[in-house]
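To assess whether ligand presence alters the predicted conformation, the chain was also submitted together with coenzyme a persulfide. Input:
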Amino acid sequence: MDYFLDDFQKELVATARRIGKEKIKPVAAEYDLNGTFPHDLVKIFADAGFYSLYHPEEYGGLGRGVLDLVLVTEELSKFCGGISLAVAATALGSFPIILSGSDEQKQKYLPDLAAGKHLAAFCLTEASAGSDAGSIKTKAEKKGDKYVLNGSKVFITNGGNAGIYTVIASTDPDKGTRGTSAFIVEEGTPGLKVGKYEDKMGIRASSTAEMVFEDCEVPEENLIGRVGAGFAVAMKTLDRSRPGVAAQALGIGQGALDMALEYAKTREQFGQSIIQFQALQFMLADMSMKAEAARALVYQTARMIDAGLSASKESAMCKVVASDMAMEVSTDAVQVFGGYGYMRDYPVEKFMRDAKITQIYEGTNQILRMVVARHLIKEIGKVS
Ligand code: COS
């Protein structure tokens, strides 16, 4: 099935698949074990143009869109769900500037991001503000022509490896979500420090770090949008980035299914390959149906975004559907491998570990079900 992709997209998928096979597959287990950040692969992704796909042409990008980002992320995630984040999380960190930045900010920052000269990271979550993103405490105080940031952000993907951090901070604590603002903070800004690097269950080749702001002075021209618009900037960003997580989940689920199929074909028990048993066939059929259904929703959502339609609901939906699929399918893939599936000598258990985070980050699936429900209620009008 070619999923109605254009020629450019077919070529893109083939390139990502080749890079996955030749460059990611050989190092995935080692980088996972040691928690190695894939600096070598970032260079390869940049040369392949992966960072330029979702940037506007006038700022050095290819002006393609979210579907292309989704296709690349899915393909790379079939080989390693952690390494693919060097692409997907940079998109997340860049979207606040693409969607809400000024022309000057776009001219200054987007060409280097599109060229993959450095990575980006999105800083919203805090130790006591996860799902309740509106209760962030990191402060940004206006002093003359600067903002001074104090506080800390946790679980920042690409943290410590990014050149640009887009940060949501409170500029007026009394105003709640309407008292937050978004800022661009460059790596190397005095007062911006990397705190603890997390030791994770999965996606171990991706860095997840605490970012600390200690009297970190940011020029006022680095304010994204207007003062007080930070929460809206963050929400619009997540509406745009969630299909990327969904694509990561798609790749993890499909990658696990591909492995399970191959194993079921070659593993023999009771004198025949186990794929001959109907119990296994039904399992594999279910896994494949779930993956295809998720893919249809993810691609449709990406196409809606690229067509300029509002897709906040679909973005939440596709992230939930794809990540729940990835968790189920990767767990079943381990089951197909039996005892060997549970052992680290075989690559399939990594898919199960990598899948779990996709149900948690960029909005837990519980929060996203709430987002979907809020849209449904809005659509049916006033509820008595
Ligand atoms: N696009 C634009 N604006 C949005 C929006 C969206 N998708 N969703 C909400 N807003 C706006 C609302 O319109 C509202 O604006 P006004 O104050 O002008 O009316 C404001 O944001 C607050 O919205 P709401 O009242 O819905 O906020 P809640 O505190 O109820 O929180 C949830 C909403 C739970 C959806 C939000 O906190 C959330 O997405 N949490 C998960 C965060 C997350 O994904 N974290 C992952 C880490 S980042 S990688």
